[in-house]
Amino acid sequence: MQIVILHQENYILNLNNYTMGTNYYRIPSEEEMLEKKELLIKRVNDLDVNDYHSINNQFRIIGKMDMYVWDRKNLWDEFTENINVHLGKRSSGWKFLWNFHNNEYYSNKEELFQFIRRGRVIDEYSEEIPVEEFIQMALEWGKEDGYDTMTYYEKLSPLSPFGVS
Prior knowledge:
By secondary structure, this protein is an alpha+beta fold. The protein has one domain (19-156). It has helices spanning 30-45, 52-56, 75-80, 109-117, 131-140, 149-156; strands at 5-8, 11-14, 21-28, 85-91, 97-98, 119-123, 128-129. A hairpin with a 2-residue loop joins strand 1 (5-8) and strand 2. The longest helix has 16 residues, at 30-45.
């Protein structure tokens, strides 16, 4: 691995001491966002702005209408729900690390790729990446010699019972 040192005035940073990476997110397709927008507009237009109960609950009207339920959503919560799903992270020296969200959106590789292909992919800087380009990058990143969580903790982590190699 190449050592890179940056000098700026009195500041020196050895990049090999840090894991620099980029996070990737799945956002809805334009069509999916338009559907969500139309639903939001309809719900806003249908609001009863004189309903004291709704006003008192900050218009948390989405979900079971029970005065003892505390997890109802307001219209904006519903609109923004699941519009930014973290797919994983690419870091120097590592294989791409997928985030499976406890199988909430997908539970295997085929479902993962279907989920990604139904939407769009952006990085943490809000730059869009073509879906197929992202999938190829994620599958090939660090493929030959990159660490995954298991090899890192087994061989390199100071927390490892095997010690640092």
